[in-house]
Design goal:
The structure is a single chain. This protein has helices at about 10-15, 20-30, 35-45, 70-85, 100-110, 135-145, 155-160, 170-190, 195-200, 205-215; strands spanning about 55, 115. The protein is mostly helical. It has one domain. A two-stranded antiparallel ribbon has the order 1-2. α1 crosses α10 (about 205-215) and α4 packs antiparallel against α5 (about 100-110).
């Protein structure tokens, strides 16, 4: 299901089949100046359908605002201290799950629930998903981006299926899912006697490599 039973060639095949458009979006994100990242976050999450069912917030207040604050730029500001706490986070290491790191991840979950909102729609027959809040797809994709690949994967339905998971509904379940990813990487490395980075020959953080291994092909 994950990568634990992969050989090195099998893992490289997964990486090589990762959908190119996501690689291009990643490169664009990494090249985006800090001042422009709110706009780029909106562009990428929109393309990646990070908040499907609800509406992504504006990057900032522009003209006639479609919604009240917060805006994506506000969320990035709120998130920064927690991102700084995760500077040394390594998905390969159980030791990364310190109290401080886990608290930072819980805080990012709470902040990024506000990536989306429920746009008023009197014709809507059903209530909006999660009352307009973002779910694990948007939250994990935003976290993957703002931590520059340290915290991953992005837990869309495809990745969850490959990891044998059904739903992730809250921060504690997300933490548990990340720890399962860590265990999966450890099993691969024990089996093949090689690190994830050396096996793939990629100079990327493990969270990003793991996201590419399980992501869309």
């Amino acid at each position: 299901m994950g990568i634990a039973h992969d050989t090195i060639p099998q893992l490289r095949k997964r990486i090589n089949s990762f959908r190119p458009k996501y690689v291009q979006d990643w490169i664009a994100w990494m090249r985006t100046p800090t001042a422009d990242r709110a706009c780029e976050l909106k562009r990428i999450l929109g393309k990646w359908q990070g908040c499907r069912g609800n509406t992504l917030r504006l990057a900032a207040a522009e003209g006639y605002a479609l919604h009240s604050p917060a805006y994506l730029g506000d969320l990035l500001v709120r998130a920064q201290n927690h991102v700084d706490t995760l500077r040394s986070f390594d998905l390969r290491s159980n030791g990364s799950y310190t109290k401080q790191a886990c608290d930072a991840l819980r805080a990012l979950w709470e902040i990024f629930e506000d990536l989306s909102y429920a746009r008023p729609n009197p014709d809507r027959k059903r209530p909006p998903p999660r009352k307009g809040k973002a779910g694990v797809v948007g939250i994990s994709k935003a976290t993957l981006l703002i931590t520059e690949g340290r915290v991953g994967p992005a837990f869309d339905s495809r990745v969850r299926r490959k990891m044998g998971m059904r739903r992730i509904s809250n921060a504690e379940e997300w933490l548990s899912a990340l720890q399962r990813a860590t265990a999966d990487i450890a099993a691969f490395e024990r089996r093949n006697q090689i690190t994830l980075e050396a096996a793939t020959k990629l100079t990327l953080p493990p969270g990003r490599i793991y996201d590419m291994a399980l992501g869309p092909s």
